[in-house]
Write a sequence for this structure.
């Protein structure tokens, strides 16, 4: 499970990495570790080797909490279940709410496939469920869009429930495992959840239900599912179907039905999430109307025939603030060109902090809210620059801000605008 997909301002939620001791420890040991980690050069296998050698040499080191936590992270990255458990369980005893370790340790325990390990895993996955639900109850902190917040937290909850289901099954409760797997799918419809449903139907000797669920796993739109996952699902689906029917005749039709069923489910969820969005259901940017912070609206259709440069930013985004003067430089270059329009587009989850922020930063000019642009252009990071050509078609989408080469941004953006202007309008 990609549990650390839930990133807020670059940090995994609930991260509780123990701080390395400072003044209480000999400077020589600190220097020894500093050099060793530097030589490891971010290689997880080398990091793990450094830690294990250090702990073998100095088992009573005051750095043990920090080192065990870092070793557990490295072991998770390396998919070494035995070492994840060895270092992860002591770390969770110290920091029980650590969402960087809870799911990883639970998953590794489940891989051992023993009742004792499953009992431990259930404790961790239930804690993860509680933490995610508390997070959802507390609400969006405001540094991601409300819809992305919902998707991320629902995905985290689904992943915890999938591990909960597997633990229950290993502990001899297949009915509860199946019900929990269904809850995981209800929380977030993805291949992993419906694959777990199929597994427990199969364990209960219900091939027809297992086949239907596995067809859903094979066909559901899911960016998290890899080609290898799809191939395994297809192979196992064929195996189950041939065993039940004697051949694969009719399997294609079953998969098409599953595809239609799951595509409709995902679309319905998407519409539900966007029902309060001002431009819900619209797929052409020229049909959008953006609300302005001053109460005035902007019909994007009014900008057809012009090159539109949209700066998407948020009050919590430090790189957005650093990049703003560079936009101003480019705007000055095109100040007299009426064929180019610059739009400052805020992507905060809530409008409350925007006006005070603009006042504090002394930013000038109209500001509009994104009102669905993040969804339309699949913006997954800020700052983002979106340029539309004269026909309202996406010309380019620039992600992020390269501080080391910030001097290049002005020339890059100028060149992209010039190229867009060169295209004819319909």
């Amino acid at each position: 499970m990609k549990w650390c997909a839930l990133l807020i301002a670059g940090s995994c939620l609930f991260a509780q990495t123990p701080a390395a001791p400072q003044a209480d420890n000999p400077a020589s040991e600190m220097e020894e570790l500093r050099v060793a980690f530097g030589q490891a050069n971010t290689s997880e296998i080398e990091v793990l080797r450094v830690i294990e050698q250090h702990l073998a040499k100095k088992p009573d080191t005051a750095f043990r909490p920090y080192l065990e936590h870092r070793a557990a992270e490295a072991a998770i990255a390396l998919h070494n279940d035995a070492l994840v458990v060895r270092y992860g369980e002591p770390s969770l005893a110290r920091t029980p709410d650590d969402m960087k370790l809870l799911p990883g340790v639970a998953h590794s325990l489940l891989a051992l496939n023993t009742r004792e390990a499953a009992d431990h895993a259930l404790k961790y996955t239930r804690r993860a469920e509680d933490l995610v639900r508390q997070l959802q109850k507390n609400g969006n902190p405001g540094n991601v869009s409300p819809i992305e917040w919902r998707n991320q937290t629902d995905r985290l909850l689904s992943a915890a429930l999938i591990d909960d289901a597997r633990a229950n099954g290993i502990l001899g409760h297949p009915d509860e495992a199946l019900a929990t797997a269904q809850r995981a799918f209800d929380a977030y419809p993805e291949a992993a959840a419906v694959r777990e449903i199929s597994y427990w139907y199969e364990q209960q000797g219900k091939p027809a239900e297992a086949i239907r669920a596995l067809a859903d796993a094979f066909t559901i739109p899911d960016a998290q599912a890899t080609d290898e996952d799809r191939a395994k699902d297809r192979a196992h689906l064929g195996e189950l179907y041939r065993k039940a029917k004697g051949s694969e005749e009719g399997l294609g039709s079953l998969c098409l039905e599953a595809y239609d069923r799951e595509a409709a489910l995902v679309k319905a969820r998407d519409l539900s999430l966007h029902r309060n969005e001002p431009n819900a259901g619209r797929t052409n940017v020229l049909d959008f109307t953006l609300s302005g912070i001053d109460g005035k609206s902007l019909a994007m259709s009014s900008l057809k025939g012009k090159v539109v440069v949209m700066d998407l930013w948020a009050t919590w985004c430090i790189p957005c603030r650093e990049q703003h003067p560079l936009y101003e430089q480019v705007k000055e270059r095109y100040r007299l060109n009426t064929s180019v329009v610059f739009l400052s587009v805020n992507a905060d989850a809530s409008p409350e902090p925007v006006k005070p922020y603009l006042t504090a930063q002394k930013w000038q000019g109209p500001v509009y809210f994104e009102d669905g642009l993040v969804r339309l252009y699949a913006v997954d990071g800020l700052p983002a620059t979106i340029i539309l050509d004269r026909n309202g078609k996406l010309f380019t989408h620039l992600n992020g801000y390269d501080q080391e080469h910030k001097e290049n941004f002005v020339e890059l953006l100028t060149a992209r605008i010039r190229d867009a202007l060169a295209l004819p309008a319909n």
Q: What stands out?
A: The two ends are 47 Å apart (CA to CA). The beta strands are 7-8, 11-12, 289-291, 297-299, 307-313, 340-346, 367-369, 384-388, 394-399. The chain has three domains: 3-198, 199-273, 285-421.
